[in-house]
Amino acid sequence: MSRYLIIFAIAACYFVFAILLNSVGTVILQSINSFDITKTDAGLLEGFKDLSIAIVSFLVASFVPRIGYRFALAGALLLVTVVCFITPGIAEFWAFKLQFAAIGSAFAFVKISVYSVIGQLSPTVKSHSSLMNFIEGLFMVGVLSGYWVFSAFIDPLQPTSLGWLAVYYWLAGLLLVTTLIVLAAPIAKPPQQLPKPVVREFVDMLQLTYQPLELIFVISIFMYVLIEQGIGTWLPTFNSQVLFLPADVSVQLTSLFAAMIALGRLSAGVILRVVDWFTFLVVCLIGIGAVLLISLSMTNNVPNEQVTTLMQAPLAAFLMPVVGLMMAPIYPVLNSIILSALTVSKQPQMTGLIVVFSALGGTTGSLITGKLFDTFGGQHAFYLILIPITLLLICLVLFRRANHRVAQHAAAQEHGVK
User: Fold this and answer.
1) What is the pLDDT of residue 140?
2) Cβ neighbours of residue 148 under 8 Å, at least 6 residues apart?
3) What is the per-residue pLDDT for 416?
4) What is the Cα–Cα distance from 262 to 354, expressed in whole angstroms?
5) Across residues 140-151, what is the average pLDDT?
6) Which residue segments constitute the domains of the chain, with CATH numbers given?
7) Angle between helices 198-207 and 347-376 (to 10 degrees)
8) Which helix (H) or strand (E) holds 366?
9) How many CB atoms neighbour CB 206 within 10 A?
10) In angstroms, rounded to a whole number, what is the distance separating the alpha carbons of residues 27 and 190?
11) pLDDT reading at 159 higher than 70
């Protein structure tokens, strides 16, 4: 019974943070409408979120076990609860910068704690993989739910109204309930270990990038997240300003992007049993480019007609989220390959690099897309995403070659020992 309560507690944490973290695209759209700011300024919210995750994850990785995972989770939840309660009362754009900085910082504690608790509950590789997939699956359910939760508070007849801020009172209540669940869960405090100095941990992490395989990998991860966040963050605004859809419908349609990512990751596990990973990812990247070109060509001369329901939206609005279906497998497959190529002792440092470069890629993608959106319009901004897609394809070829050389070297060493 205690095991199931612990799983329920960490799953609830991941679910609620999925809603908050992935609300950035919706908040960008509503901030543009409600606070009359530029797209470039609105795109800064992604940076406040992602850079907070990266910096705090690095700084607290060795500190979290000392305070215990249960109190780390509860503290993170309470911090965001307070922020959600006060944000509607302030009702200024700068408050959202602080809010996403707080959400990102808190999620750093949550992610470290949840991953560590999964390790406590999973004595075998099979059970660890099973529980990890379950928790990550619930995260995607949270992402999908978040778009509908926010859209329920948006008034399509008054797009500049601040009434949508009431969603944060509802989220604060959900966070408070989750905090009580975490405090009730018997999450064990880990045994105390002598941590490395922060500088030593940082040097160990950076040393991984000296090798070609690891360097190409972090560039690939940076490019992937740049593409994903460039599309995902700005898709609600694209739907609103290019396809002329009301804000609530624009947000609801963006939920299809999250649903496609969830479906893509579930189906990829089956496909990769019979298809080579490199071939599969190349097909996925080509598919992303093809869907972008087709859907963007359909946005030319879209009639500015009144749309009130999801089913009245043009076909392009439903086709664009299909990009997520082919995008989904790339990130976990690359992570799996690089972690499998490293020794167990180096995997924590590589995990740190994954978090840092994912955050940097997300921030860069959001800022660049927002600037291009502001300068050239949504269609051109999304067309230019084809450039990092091409760069990622090149990185993929180089990554396979480097991985092949590492595998050959390891096999030669093993043969020499024998």
Assistant:
1) 77
2) 252, 255
3) 58
4) 20
5) 84
6) 1-195 (1.20.1250.20), 196-418 (1.20.1250.20)
7) 80
8) helix 347-376
9) 13
10) 37
11) no
